[in-house]
Amino acid sequence: MRRHLYIIAAIACMAWACETLPTSPDQIPDTSYRAVTAIGKALEECPSVGHIYSDSCMTVAPGVLQTNLHIQTAEAKVEHIFFLTLDLRLARMKVATPEDAYVPGRLLKPSEMAEASGLDVLAVIGGDAWDSSSGEVCGPVHKGGKILKESFIWSTAIEDQAVSFFGMDAEGCPVIRDSSEYRAVRNTLEECTGSGVIVVKDGCLADGGSFLEYSPYRLPRTCVGYTADGSIMYVFVCDGKRALWSDGMLYEEMGDIMLSLGCSWAASLGNGEYSQMLTKEAPSGILKLRNRTSDGAEYPTADAWMIIPAI
Questions:
Q1: 310 CB-contact burial (10 Å; exposed 0-12 / middle 13-18 / buried 19+)
Q2: Which has more pLDDT, 22 or 37?
Q3: Domain with 224 in it
Q4: Which of 33, 149, 242, 264 has its CA 20 to 30 A from that of 73?
Q5: Backbone phi, psi, residue 295, to 5°
Q6: Would residue 73 count as lying in a domain?
Q7: pLDDT tens digit sequence for 132-154
Q8: Which run of H or E residues covers position 255?
Q9: What is d(CA 164, CA 66) in angstroms, rounded to the nearest whole number?
Q10: Residue 15 falls within a domain, yes or no?
């Protein structure tokens, strides 16, 4: 009898918890915490952010800052987000690939690609998505001024990819545009990979903020964006599909965050397991995985983006 009472009490507690789960910002328990980092303070005004529970910042190298945030969204979802802020006068981005030539199906961990490059790599993030059935990356690949692949491959197996491209031109300026514009500018791009959904376009939420034709699910996400003058770039990785740690993001939330940081253009890169960020750890100089992937380790990818000193 006593055992039955315990079971009934447990079920009642679970039902009460479900009924009282917050569903809007005004139902989220308030916190006296106030952001201390530049990104955290900017996101206090972001419409998709309900509360900020912690934020911290560290200098990876001159011109490269890493900021970690624990937030609750306006939809009462918990998120852990890892940002890089790049001053493109002091740092630049380069594509990393497993081989100097494009080899479909050839994969390496981002840290292995960084080591093989022989460069002073300060950070690495996952690049374009790839189709596991064919081994093809979804978008083009430019590396060091060489075009290794110049096509977009759309696959029903990979949601929301082959939609756009992200690149750096010969002067080190970032470029995000729709895939339909790639042919017109491809010869100006020194570095380039495919990217996913454009979330900020000309300083406004893309698609009017609806994103109805794209995935409505919360996933681990990677996003890259830049200010109107092209001097500052923001990259973030948001963990997802990890209960009590991070639920994952929606495209509208990604756009709101990048707009709050002053971006004029922003787009997603590979989602899911491709969302990973490594930064150099002092004093060892070893690239360390900063976010939490599903198994806590790096995933091999077909390409990646490295951050290196500009000089």
A1: middle
A2: 37
A3: 29-309
A4: 264
A5: -115, 10
A6: yes
A7: 888 899 999 999 999 999 999 98
A8: helix 251-260
A9: 26
A10: no
- Total count of domains within the chain: 1
Whole-angstrom CA distances from 39 to 78, 169, 255, 305 are: 17, 26, 15, 22
Whether residue 52 contacts residue 271, with contact meaning beta carbons closer than 8 Å, is answered with no
Q: What is d(CA 6, CA 129) in angstroms, rounded to the nearest whole number?
A: 49
- Assign 271 to helix, strand or coil: coil
Find out whether 87 and 234 touch, Cβ atoms under 8 Å: no
Model confidence pLDDT, tens digit, residues 238-265: 999 888 899 999 999 999 999 999 999 9
Nearest to 162 by CA among 211, 197, 132, 210: 197
**What's the half-sphere exposure (Cβ side, CA atoms, 13 Å) at 76?**
11
Of the candidates 45, 48, 50, the residue with the CA atom closest to the CA atom of residue 31:
50
